[in-house]
Amino acid sequence: MSISENIETVVSTFQKGRALSERELGLDELITELNKFEMRYRSVAFEGASMGVALANSMETWKVYAQKTARHATQVHIGLGWAIAECQMNLASTLSEIEPEMRVKVLDGFGYWNGLFQRRATIRTQQIPENITPEFQSGFDQGVGRAIWYITKGEVDKVVNIINHFSEDRRPNLWQGIGVASTYVGGCSDELIAELKSAAGEFKTNFEKGIGAAEESMIKSKETD
Fold it and tell me: Most CB contacts within 10 A, which of 31, 40, 143, 203?
């Protein structure tokens, strides 16, 4: 499939996962249903459901969901970031309840949501929300980078044009987000990846780090108990 087709599949799968979480299912039954999704995009369904579980329940219930779905930890924590942004939960307070190594994933989801649904402020005018302190910004910007990939549908010239409007200190994490998104969505030829590496220039290492992070999370999601 092309990048655009893969993006459509990702969006549809996320929405289906969230819809499942809104049914009156216990967590175990919900997880059983989520495990029926195609392996390639299954973690996206868990991400959508994570958002729904967080929106409809207490953090304690969401934590149980996260424990039961540990192989999809990256996407599950990104889904929590969506929920925080959607209902304007207290970001700092919620992050304090998350293990330190996963906070960047929550911030990624928060940044991604803002990139999509607060596009004028987040991408067109490069604003940073008041609750994004310097310690939170790297994860937030990775999520914004992922949003840029989805918005541009992988058109390199558009990616570069948007990123170059951001201050230089933000570009490393934006390019890392591009690396994550381009790998996770798929549909990229070797030629396109080479073109992206060239376009990233001095931030090539950040782009490659994003590729590695996405590959690692995809491998983990396929592990068996």
Answer: 143
